[in-house]
Every structure is written in C-alpha cells, then in structure tokens.
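Chapter review: from sequence to fold.
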Amino acid sequence: MITLSVIVPVRDGERFIADALASLCRNARHDFEFIVVDDGSVDATGDIVEDFLLDLPGLSLVRNRAPVGLADARNTGLSAASGRYVTYLDGDDWLAPGYLARLVEAVDGLGCDFVRTDHVQVEGRKRVVHRAPLATPRGAVLDARGAIMPAGVRTMVDYPYAWAGIYRRSLGDLLHFPGSLHTAEDRPWIWRLHREAATFAVVSLAGVFYRRMVSGSLTQVGDERQLHFFDAFELVFKDVEPEFLPKAVRNFCALLAHHLDIGDRLTPELRARFEERGAEMVGGLPPELVAESVAGMARDREALLRALVPGLPASPPPSPYSRVRHDREEPA
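The token string follows.
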C-alpha cells in the first residue's frame, strides 16, 4: 500500500530537475511513489527523469505531448496518484533529507485533513525561512475555516504554496486545481481548501527549498499568463461567503498593488490591458472594503491603487491592523 504520492510537474526543467530528483532519492521509502509529469518539455527534462528510474524506487514519468500548464499538470499527477496522502514538489525546487517521512509522521499523528509547513526561500546563495502565517497554536488540529480571518493580517489563505504541506487524498476534488489558469492557480485552490475542508494543522517543518528569481518561472514571466491573476480571483469572489469577503478583497488589492509595482516587466500593451482589467475588478468590489484595504497598505502601494482607480473613497481612520506588511504579499 502506498502511503504518500509526491507529484512533480515540470516543463523545460533540465537545469534543475536532477537536483529535485536527487533530493527525492534522499527521501525515498518503499511506500512512497514519485510521479513526475513532464508537461510538454522540448529540452532534455524527460531524458534526465528516465535516468533516475533505476535510482529512485517508486518513480514514474507521465509525458504530456503538448504543455497544459502547471494546474492541469498537477491534476494529471493527482489522477495517477494512489497514496493515502499527497504532496507536491516543483521541478526547480528540492527537499531536505528525511523531510517526507517527518511530514507523514506529522499528519498521521494529528489525524487532520491537511498539514501546512514552513519553507526555505532560495535566491542564489541566500536562504531565508518563511513561516506559515500561524504562530500559535502550532502542532494542534484546528478548524480550517477559522484560519481565513481576520482580514487585516496575513492568514493561511495568504500562504497558497501547495508544496508547503501534505493532504489526504480522500479530500478528492478539493485537491484539484482550476485548469483554466496558467498562473495564480494556487489562490482559488487555497481558498476552497480552507473553506470546504474540515481540519488542518501547521507544523514547524521547513524542508522545502523554494527557488526564487529563476528565469522562465511563472513568477518572472511577463506574458499574457499574468492576466490569469484576475481569473483566479474571479473564482475566489464567485464562491466566497459574505463573512470572508473583507479578507478576499484585501487579499486581491494587496496582490494587485504588488503586480502594479513590478509592472515594468510587461509590454506597454499588456500593462495597459492589465491596468484596465484591474480597474474594472476594483470598481466592482464594495467601495468600503476597498477603502479599508487601501488604508492598510504602505504609502507607495496605496498610491499605485489610487492612480489606477482615481475615484476610490478616502481611507478610513487607521485600524489596529493598519500598515501591516500584508500588502507586501507576493504571488506564488
């Protein structure tokens, strides 16, 4: 019986996929399976994965003839998974030795629907631990919906990284990603997971090493996929309950301000479309919630949104949560 399925989507990842697979070799167990989904690579990615078939027990390779995007590549891996639990690893990241066994031990011991972890962000030689935004109580089973609010501080829906955790495969459709999205797919996914799953926990494990600033990664590209940010939040707003709407609005506005701040990576034509779509979406949100969201931002980010939507109402007096660093959240 398979305990854990590790799903590794990758496209044109020949630079780093060997590092990812070598780290899985240091985590291998007879009851673990590793499903690499080669999403239409045109480089040597698939050949490198095949070289590991004898070295990594439980490794299998699924090849997509044409790329379908990260969301559907993950979904393909989910369809092939047979483990009691599921986790993810992106093809340019890697794991600490023994991390997966500790992850399984944590979810087994807690008995909840899913467990989230910290991670290590890597930029060149720099290493920074990023903690899941739940300081206490760690290692305790909690209500998943209870971790969405309050609106004015970072909560678990501001930490969308699917690879920073482990999930019961019995959650079924809650683990599937919206295949229409080629970026920001984690956003509606994490919202739905916390809204519809029953229980979760956060544990102090930081065994995922997440490469940032990698050329070609979705956080770096400046093509039309960046417009899927709006599609992602349309899915969030479509289903969100009124009690969580203040958080969803603040979440969206903070990330929109971030995208505007780095808008120089877009072509002038694409930036104009991005700004038009942003103004349209902000204009369709409750003005009072937008005003509260803007009031909680740093001045430079507030100025970006006010320039985008000149008719924004004046900010209310500062709340106890104002000027928090929530507005510095970056997209996954």
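Two observations follow directly from the output. The longest strand covers residues 32-39. Residues 249 and 290 are 7 Å apart (CA to CA).
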